[in-house]
Structures are given as structure tokens and as C-alpha cells.
Amino acid sequence: MTKPTILVVEDESIVAKDIQKTLQRLGYDVPAVASSSVTAMEKIEDIKPDLVFLDIKLKGSEDGIQIAEKIKEQYGIPVIFLTSFVDKKTLERAKITEPYGYIVKPFNENDLQTAVEMGLYKYSKDKEVKHSSKQYANTLLSLNEAIIITDNKLNITFMNAKGEELTDTMSGQAMSNNLLKLIKITDRTKKTVDARQLKSRGDEPVWTISEALVTVLKSSEKKTLHITISPIRNEKDEIIGNAFIFRNELAETSSVTEPGEESAIIENVVVQNSFFVKKNSLLVKVYLDNILWIQAMDNYVIIQTSKDQFVIHSTMKDIEAKLPSNQFARIHRSYIVSIDKISVLDENTALIGDKIIPVGKSYKDAFMKKLNFL
Description:
Elements: E1 5-9, H1 13-25, E2 29-34, H2 37-47, E3 51-55, H3 64-74, E4 79-83, H4 88-96, E5 102-104, H5 109-142, E6 146-151, E7 156-159, H6 161-167, H7 171-174, E8 183-186, H8 195-198, E9 207-216, E10 222-233, E11 239-247, H9 249-256, E12 270-271, E13 274-279, E14 282-287, E15 291-297, E16 300-305, E17 309-313, H10 316-322, E18 328-332, E19 335-338, E20 344-345, E21 349-352, E22 355-358, H11 361-368
């Protein structure tokens, strides 16, 4: 296994050398130290470190916070600040750079090792989340349905290509714009649906507006669509926005009866020990033994296997009903896991490979009953 490479940026040479030797003794690769902004950036180019220890109160034309901003912008390398006593204003400036830790002087060997391990671990998890978010965003962009995601005030935060077509607005122009400034929604009784009716409802995980008349305010074009609205929640289960999916009901109904498309109705059916999942124009068999976890994302479900990822239009309730309960467990409103794939478990999380999955309080008791304990 390759040793993590660390750069130490500290203008007190004795302190810098002490940190370097301590980190080397702990098994890390610390090929160089730097004492200023110029030498720090040169060393980063030269050694390509995995982590940078950086003194906040570095002397010279640029302090440690300014250097951290450059490192973040140009290289995206995690930074851990070395600090002594600093005032509140300096700490507020430091927070903006989103460091991966702080070490307060004087510190010992254990402090350094803990900071390195926690910093690198947090950085790897952040990269994983960003990668997953990018994958999911790319999936939503390519779907053949208009998808618009808003915050709690109905200000748009995401829109796919079909959403652009629906609103007659480019995604970049729509960002932060209020949804109801782009479209007007009228229900089947011809009543205008207002912002209060569209905002997330805690007691309804998903709700729909059938046969809605959607008027594009820019062009005055009108379309009759089926609208599904789902709340978006953060890791604390708090509602932070809404996901709107706009479908052409006639197109959706006719697609099932198209020649050669009849097999699509079995795309979510479990046949013995496998799923048939529709991927592009094919039905792909996914063996249950290969599934690591299943994650809910609005009205879609992501099936993660050891080698692939499938996105299907379904609900967690529907998927859960079709899975063998002795092999899979719902451990969170957004996650179903393969029980035998769990390697580590604590009170609030389960670990499958490098994936940390939260365990929800309301699912915990039923989940724990499925496990064997010595």
C-alpha cells in the first residue's frame, strides 16, 4: 500500500523539521517542507502531496489562509491547519477554506496521526459523495422526463434537458429562479396551484397532480401533464426541497403497447434469484447475490452491484416487497442493504465496502432482529 505523501508548510524551521520527522516516524512520506507561499506552491507541483499541514499565521505577504484558498482552488488537496491562539475573525476566515482539520500547538505524535487519518478519511468520503452526486446528476440529465429540483422556497437548483424544454429556459438561466415564474400549474378543476400547495408535506412522502395543465409563461404554450412531487431530505431527515417530475400521460400509456415493448412490464419482477432491470433498450438480469445496496432518489431507485449501477423508475416500498426479507433489510428511508455484504456495524451506520450507510431510528429494531449475534 502506498504511503500518503504530506507537505508541511511552516515558517519556524525547528517546528517544521520536528513535524516532518514525527510524521516520517509514523510511516508517512514527507519529502519536503516549505516556509512561504511561493515555496509551498512549488513543492505541491513537485511532490503532488495527498495532504498539506499548513500554519495559519505564516509570515510573509500571504498568510496560511490565503495559501489554503490557492491550494483548494488550483489543486483540491486537503489542508489541515496548524494553529496556536488565533482570534475569532481569523478562525472565521479559515472556515471558508473548508479545512480537513485543525491541530493546536503544542501537539504530540498522537495528535498528528489522528489528524492525518481523519483528514484523509474525510477527504476520501467527500470525493465519494461528489462522485456519486455527479453520477446521479448525469443520470437525471439523461432521463426522458422533465425533472426540476427546487429548494423549500421553490427556487430552482437543478433542471435536466427535458426540464429546459418544458420551461423554455436554459438551465443556467433558471438557477435560483422561482419555478412559478417559469410555469403556471392548473389542476383538473381549473384552479391555479399556488406555492403553498406545491411545497413539501411532511405527512406525504410523494403526491401527484393528475391531468395538470402546465402553461409556459415565456411562450404561453400549454401542456397537459402528470406531475409527481417528492420531498428531498438531508442526512438529518429534514425536508430541504422538492423534486418535480413532469410526464406526458398519453406517451407513458402508449409506450407499454408499442411492439416489442411488452417485456418492459417485467423490468422490476424478481424471477427466482435475480432481477430483470431495464437498461437502455435491453433487459439485464441482475442477480440478488451481486446487489450491495439499493438507494432511493426521488421517484427513482438506484441498484448498486459490485460492478454496475442501475437506475429504475420505482419506489422503495415496491422494491422491498419483491426482495427476500432474509437476505435484504431496509435500514433507512433511503436505503435497503444486502445483509451479508455488511462488514462493520455500529449504532448509527453500516459499512459495505467503503460505503457508509446511515441506520434510521425507525428501522433499527426490525433490522437488528435479522442479524445473528454471538
